[in-house]
Specification:
Strand content: under 5%
Order of helices and strands: HHHHHHHHH
Helix content: over 70%
Number of strands: 0
Largest sheet: none
Oligomer: single chain
Number of helices: 9
Number of domains: 1
Distance between the termini: 16 Å
Shape: globular
Length: 164
């Protein structure tokens, strides 16, 4: 599936900076895919890939955080929407115990550890669910993205091959 997403982006964007940016916006890839792709397949310098990936991943967190409440409230009026958001919110609550306990620092760590189901997408959902203020949430997500991007960049530049 990830290959299909990458090929989709490559079909209409040729610049590796923009592909890195767009990959960082996807919920399945985020920084864990965008940075290694940018540095290996995209042949970008590590700091260029870092900046473009963090920018894309942070940018997508803004509408998620601001619109999740109104969109979920609207869509939960129908059985399919209610079932989806109940599943999403239950899953996020299970994964977000650290955020519930430590709030700001918990959100930084949660977003900052580059593992599946952590990152800006789930972090923004968790910040909404646990009632963190927008300001704290944006700062924590950005700090977590810098932490995650640093970890992924170090892993990628030290020779761990993820693509190709």
């Amino acid at each position: 599936m990830l290959d299909a997403v990458i090929h989709f982006f490559q079909g209409f964007v040729q610049d590796p900076r923009w592909i890195t940016f767009l990959l960082a916006m996807t919920p399945i890839g985020e920084l864990r895919v965008a940075l290694p792709w940018g540095m290996t397949i995209g042949d970008m310098l590590w700091y260029d890939a870092f900046i473009w990936a963090v920018a894309g991943n942070f940018l997508i967190s803004i509408p998620i955080l601001l619109l999740l409440g109104p969109v979920s409230k609207f869509l939960m009026r129908w059985p399919l929407g209610e079932r989806f958001f109940n599943w999403l919110f239950a899953r996020t609550r299970r994964k977000g115990k650290m955020i519930e306990t430590w709030e700001f620092l918990g959100l930084v760590i949660f977003v900052g550890i580059p593992l599946p189901v952590t990152g800006a997408w789930t972090g923004a959902a968790a910040a909404f669910l646990f009632g963190l203020s927008y300001r704290k949430s944006f700062l924590a997500i950005f700090a977590g993205l810098l932490m995650s991007a640093t970890i992924v960049t170090i892993i990628t530049t030290t020779g761990v091959k993820l693509f190709g």
